[in-house]
Amino acid sequence: MLHRWPCRFVFVRPAWLLPVLMIAGCARYHAKPLNAARSAQALTARRLSDTRLIRFLGKMGVHPSGQWNLHALVLVAVYERPDLKIAHAHYAITRGGVETAAALPNPELALEPTFNAAPVQAIPSPWTIGPVISFLVSSLGARQAGLEAARDKAAAARTLIATTAWQERGAVRDAMLQLWLARQQRRLAEQEADLAGRARAILARRAEAGMVAEAVVAQATETAQKARFAAAEARPRIAIDRVKLAGAVGLPAAALAHSP
């Protein structure tokens, strides 16, 4: 339960208002509009060879030399993507809430008119304007309850940091596995197309020699065409999955164009 206890000070001359108004007039708002073109340019300019990124990886004990494994790419995602930074900022806000809940509330200053009923000849007017300072006093464990609630929020925000980091790792891992699967599918599809083409050529020579019927060659030709079509379908999947991996680590697709 909160109680507000006022403490009144009365001044005859309001000369102290001048510095207060001067201090209040010092604050200025400076608009900082978003520049979409500049943000897009900065995003597309990101590369794995960025010196600040390499310095960050070096501090984390990672020195990639052309081979970017899961651990290295997860650190790139931590550096480039905003999710973990937002989680840390939210935790900092909750920590500030704990400090605020633990501190005593500041007194509030207000201006209220005061009527002096005493017939004093030295005062030109019985009405004066003076400051009133109010103190907010908590009781019945309200302050301790607010402190515990703030600590619970900070603990939840700290857990969110670990959850966000694990989600970052999972997104990079899934994207890497998908890209690896696409490459394996392309390799197997190209091998199947090559073998189907060889089998069709052998059957065509046997058909010229009268050893097999033309229907067998036609069937082999259809099989070879399907295999070539499957290999052609597998090639663009690699580019698509590379784009997904680039998004998972927070880089443009061009940054991973020559990745293994």
Brief digest:
The chain is mainly alpha-helical and 260 residues long.
Blueprint (SSEs and pairs):
Layout: E1 2-8, H1 17-24, H2 36-44, H3 51-59, H4 70-80, H5 83-102, E2 108-115, E3 127-138, H6 142-208, H7 214-249
Antiparallel strand pairs: 1-3, 2-3
Helix pairs in contact: 4-6, 5-6, 6-7
Please explain how this structure is put together:
The protein is mostly helical. The protein is built from 7 helices and 3 strands, in the order E-H-H-H-H-H-E-E-H-H. A 3-stranded antiparallel sheet has the order 1-3-2, with no helix packed on it. Helix 5 packs antiparallel against helix 6. The two termini are 65 Å apart.
Q: Flag low-confidence runs.
A: 1-18
What about the largest sheet? 3 strands, antiparallel
Output the strand order for the largest sheet: 1-3-2
SSE topology string: EHHHHHEEHH
Percentage beta strand: 5-15%
Assembly type: single chain
Mean pLDDT: 81
Task: Give the N-terminus to C-terminus distance in angstroms.
Answer: 65 Å
Beta-strand segment tally = 3
Task: Tag the structure with descriptive keywords.
260 residues, rod-shaped, 7 helices, 3 strands, mainly alpha, disordered N terminus, three-stranded antiparallel β-sheet, single chain
